Amino acid sequence: VAEALSRIGGLEVDKVPVTASPHLSRYRNRMTFTLRRLRAGRVVAGLHGLDRPSHVIDVKSECILPEPEITSAWISLRDNWGTGARRLPLGGRLRLTLRNSKSGIDLLIEGGTSAWSPEALMKQVPSVSTVWHEPSDTGAIELVYGKVHEDIWVGEKLLLVGDVFLQVNRAAAQLLQEYVIATSGSPDSAVDAYCGVGYYGRQLANSGAAVVGIDVSGTALTSSCEKRSGNYRTVQGAVEEHLSNFLPVDLLILNPPRSGLESTIPLQILDAPPETIIYVSCDPATLARDLKRLGSAYALIDYEAFDLFPQTAHIETVVVLRRSENQ
């Protein structure tokens, strides 16, 4: 993180503090596996090779990252999908995602044909209670077995519809989210950009701030079961298409995907600069690039890394920026 901020962002930073994950293994509440059907009914299912991303390494119980419930469900799924994975949708390649929640295990199948019934498989795999399917021929995610699961996330009840995004490391994510809220102060107005299920926005709104949450996923925006504060509203769409309508504000929270901010967003920020920006990043390189785009308009006030992905090279970083006095 320090090297990226210095080399790409042109920022001088001291050693970056790191908040460790409470668990170094068995921490992932969600795992995605790739299944390939080969000749003569053979099947390989597991993870992509580090040096050969197109190569699928067969994985049974060897991986130390998933929570035990997911490992158990994966073993049961493998043992019962039948020769050539005949109890799964037809298709040469499938993505199988298992997610663990307080309601149980759900399975999302991406790929294959829509002409598929899950009952034969589910009779053999009772540890999976809900199945979602996104067939290649429709591209739409449908609930095909069971009911929508609920989960408790940092004290809030959420509906886990389809592929709604939540961090994979529940315990470490809570530490990160608590840090962001503690660093936010007491703004009168805020925008939560790339808000997802809206945790930050709802917390700030409950403290009295007028908050707008922006996210492209309508499913994520409607996933919360909590009563919404009158101070909190959401807008569905791309952040770059809506952000300028709500600036300036006291606080702007940015939590973009790995690719970072779309190129016009720093320009929108500079045209109507918020007083404070909290940027949550999962890629130090794109974080540094985006900070450089903001130039001297903002001063780097605080930064901390969070080890959300132990045993991997990935890390989450939070930086706090304050509007420079001469802006």
From TrEMBL:
A GO molecular-function term, please? rRNA (uridine-C5-)-methyltransferase activity
The answer to whether UniProt assigns keyword Methyltransferase to this entry is yes
Q: Which InterPro entries match?
A: MeTrfase_TrmA_AS, MeTrfase_TrmA_CS, SAM-dependent_MTases_sf, U5_MeTrfase_fam
**What is any Pfam family matched here?**
tRNA_U5-meth_tr
The alphabetized list of GO BP terms reads:
rRNA base methylation
Name the UniProt record assigns to this protein: TRAM domain-containing protein
Lineage start: unclassified sequences, metagenomes, ecological metagenomes
Q: Which UniProt keywords apply?
A: Methyltransferase, S-adenosyl-L-methionine, Transferase
Record organism: marine metagenome
